[in-house]
Design a protein that fits this description.
The complex is a heterodimer of chains A (about 350) and B (about 325). By secondary structure, chain A is an alpha/beta fold. Chain A is built from twelve helices and eight strands. A six-stranded parallel β-sheet of chain A has the order 1-7-8-4-3-2, with helices on both faces. Chain A has a two-stranded antiparallel ribbon with strand order 5-6. In chain A, helix 1 crosses helix 2 and helix 4 runs parallel beside helix 11. The N and C termini of chain A lie far apart (about 65 Å). Chain B is α/β, with parallel strands linked by helices and about 325 residues long. In chain B, about 40% of the residues lie in helices and about 15% in strands. Chain B is built from twelve helices and 14 strands. Chain B has a seven-stranded mixed β-sheet with strand order 3-2-4-5-7-6-12, with helices on both faces. In chain B, strands 9-11-10-13-14 form a five-stranded mixed β-sheet, with helices on both faces. Chain B is globular, with a radius of gyration of 19 Å. Chain B starts with a strand and ends with a helix. The relative contact order of chain B is 0.12. The chains are: A alpha/beta (about 350), B alpha/beta (about 325). Bound molecules: thiamine diphosphate (TPP) and magnesium ion. The site of magnesium ion (MG) has 6 residues of chain A, from strand 5.
Chain lengths: ~350, ~325
């Protein structure tokens, strides 16, 4: 494949760690992946025992890709994660506690039972709360970056993730095109896990390679090996630093598989065995561990310790949250309008009656 | 200043907020150097470099961008080239802008200007009135100014409000209405205005229909009737108090809207009066809306499709006989 103006860099930098892959980074990333995995396993248990209402959407198998974006972001950046991004979210500062609170609908969570599961964030801190409608967050992140540009703030990047299915939306296209036109410091990571719910890629898009879209948008395209932590850290690290240093939007496409159903209600029986047995189906957590043990960035004892600590933390937080109050309808203000005085709020809601 | 048009009032309001508030920027198609399809941003790009920006034809992304910027503390104004095209940004408006405060506690102060309503020759895709669609969604404030003064002060207010505001400015009023000067003080948004006092029938209208209602009321004076006209100004929040007080005086209600009747603002007003002021009514409440087809192109068809002074007058005569 030849691409013109928008260059596309490949990956295959295994054994040649690049900027962004440091021992420290990789260790932090691995630990966060483990946290996400253990926490999500707990969420699945809570779902099966009927404690969680609504859906549970897990990122099993996609932690390496997700965390690699999260660890390269910093305070002041803008981050709009999507459904498979528990690991990236934790890297950006989300917590086990708030995840559980949001899934379990605790009134003490950031979404206060008004929204749930993966629809959580703290927008005022640059951590956007995704809406379900796929593609919508690309332009939203662009808007945050435009604001920073207009105020003369430099050095921040914006980032969002999406599945390959979400790239078929008009919203995604409009957002990417806009990012290209404005040359914004945005990094968009596409997790091509071969299925959009049950729909395989042949029914999703006709281009040979999603990466070729980078050229169409006039943005830099990069490919990462989606279940290889070291590769993802390297490629996304470069994407983030390119964006940060003013080189414009970055599209990262990574192939992988999700190792769970679309949601916990789904057995993913449509994913064929041969794919699961292929390199795409290898578990990123196992791969990262093997590789990091090999190069001495991690020891078996450490992993065992971390696992224990995380399990304990998850269990403690879960039992705490299970005892927390549910939102009380009688204490809700039932108001969708912002920052007007209470009288005016009343007026807005009721048209002055009641 | 004299002879300020409704359109110029909108331009002047934008100039003023750009001047006074560094958080404001305007984003829309052809609004930069070109000054906008209707020239509502004429010369503003030059006066405020980097703050009046041409957008690609991407209504979804335009609104998404405004939301992201609003979250970062800006006060974006989005100009839709025509209200009709806001359907392409509908998802961002109703699912992200309108829900943000409720879901996250973070407010979403942005203004979306919709050049609305019919003009001769506009046709099905350049004539729509979208206020009821947006007013349906909790979290959106929907303004429908009918006068030059309101176009100016309500746009200033729209920018100051911490919620997303859908600002329905009527294209038919752009050049038709003129004022000598712009006011400094106004009724707060959410308050309706008695545009004409009367005792026989209350006509509730908004936007361009206020002027058709006023002309009809004038016509009815020849029949010896005294018609009250209430200008809603904002359709959400809707000022039920002022409407009910007026109906209490007149006992009869006609609601006029340029949009389609089904699930519209007129239906909402009647529903409120029927449930909260049934005892005030001496006759069944009536509504007059556009005919239930797409907005036709030819002026002869269009002039019959939408309510006019004479069809309002006819409805009033019928209502007075009930
Ligand atoms: C605009 C829109 N249409 C439909 C849906 C319903 N939906 C939620 S997730 C999903 C599949 C998404 O697939 P993909 O983008 O590949 O992400 P993945 O689930 O594979 O991570 C669909 C169809 C949606 N959220 N948004
Ligand atoms: Mg997918």
């Amino acid at each position: 494949m030849t691409l013109g103006k928008a260059s596309v860099s490949g990956s295959k930098r295994v054994g040649k760690p690049s900027q962004g892959v440091t021992r420290e980074n990789a260790r932090r990333a691995y630990r966060l992946m483990l946290e996400a995995r253990v926490l999500e396993e707990k969420l699945a248990v809570l779902y099966r025992s009927g404690k969680i209402v609504g859906g549970v959407f897990l990122g099993r198998g996609q932690e390496a890709l997700s965390v690699s974006l999260g660890v390269h972001l910093r305070k002041g950046d803008i981050y709009a994660p999507l459904i498979r991004d528990q690991a990236g979210r934790m890297a950006f500062g989300d917590t086990i506690l708030d995840t559980l609170r949001t899934y379990l609908g605790s009134s003490l969570g950031s979404m206060r039972g008004r929204d749930g599961n993966i629809h959580r964030g703290r927008p005022a801190e640059g951590y956007h709360a995704m809406i379900s409608h796929l593609g919508a967050m690309v332009s939203t992140v662009c808007g945050g970056l435009m604001a920073k540009r207009m105020r003369g703030e430099t050095g921040a990047v914006g980032a969002t993730c999406i599945g390959e299915g979400g790239t078929s939306t008009g919203s995604f296209h409009e957002g990417m095109n806009l990012a290209g036109v404005e040359k914004l410091p945005i990094v968009v990571v596409v997790a091509n896990n071969q299925f959009s719910y049950s729909t395989p890629n042949e029914r999703q898009f006709a281009c040979a390679d999603l990466l070729s879209r980078a050229e169409g948008y006039g943005v830099m395209g990069r490919r990462a090996v989606g279940n290889d932590l070291i590769d993802c850290l390297g490629v996304i690290g470069e994407a983030v630093s390119s964006a940060r240093s003013g080189e414009g939007p970055q599209l990262v496409v990574a192939d992988l598989l999700r190792l769970v159903g679309h949601g916990e209600h789904d057995d993913a029986s449509y994913i064929p065995e041969f794919l699961k047995m292929s390199p795409l189906g290898e578990d990123c957590l196992d791969l990262a561990r093997t590789k990091m043990l090999e190069i001495g960035w991690l020891s078996d004892d450490e992993v065992t310790d971390w696992q224990k600590i995380i399990e304990k933390e998850v269990e403690e937080n879960a039992s705490k949250v299970l005892r927390e109050p549910a939102p009380d309808p009688s204490e809700e203000d039932w108001n969708a309008f912002s920052s007007l005085d209470p009288q005016q709020k009343q007026h807005l809601q009721t048209g002055g009656r009641q | 200043m004299s002879n300020i048009t409704y359109l110029e009032a909108i331009r002047l309001a934008q100039q003023r907020v750009l001047h006074e508030d560094p958080r404001v920027f305007i984003y829309g198609q052809d609004i930069g150097v070109f000054g906008g399809a209707f020239k509502a941003t004429k010369n503003l790009a030059k006066e405020f470099p980097g703050r009046v920006l041409d957008a690609p034809i991407s209504e979804d992304a335009m609104v998404g961008l405004a939301i992201g910027a609003a979250v970062e503390g800006m006060r974006p104004i989005i100009e839709m080239q025509f209200a009709d095209f806001s359907t392409c940004g509908f998802n961002q408006i109703v699912n992200q802008a309108a829900t943000l405060h409720y879901r996250t506690g973070t407010s979403c102060p942005l203004v979306i200007r919709l050049p609305s309503g019919g003009t001769p020759g506009g046709g099905p895709f350049h004539s729509q009135s979208m206020e009821a669609i947006y007013a349906h969604y909790p979290g959106l404030i929907v303004m429908t100014p009918a006068t030059v003064e309101d176009a100016y002060t309500m746009l200033l207010e729209a920018v100051a409000i911490d919620d997303p505001v859908i600002f329905c400015e009527h294209k038919f009023l752009y050049y038709h209405l003129k004022a000598d000067r712009l006011p400094e003080t106004v009724l707060p948004f959410g308050k309706a205005r008695i545009a004409r006092q009367g005792r026989d029938v209350t006509v509730v209208a908004y936007s361009a229909m206020v002027h058709e209602a006023l002309a009809a009321a004038e016509e009815l004076t020849h029949d010896g009737y005294d018609i009250e006209v209430v200008d809603l100004r904002t359709v959400r929040p809707i000022d039920t108090d002022t409407i009910l007080a007026s109906v209490a005086r007149t006992g009869r209600l006609l609601v006029v809207g340029e949009a389609w009747p089904w699930g519209g603002v007129a239906a909402e007003v009647i529903s409120r009066v029927a449930t909260e002021g049934f005892g005030l009514l001496d006759a069944p409440p009536q509504r007059l809306n556009a005919k239930e087809t797409p907005v036709p192109y030819h002026p002869a068809l269009w002039g019959t499709h939408r309510p006019t002074a004479s069809s309002v007058a006819n409805s009033l005569r019928q209502l007075l006989e009930l």
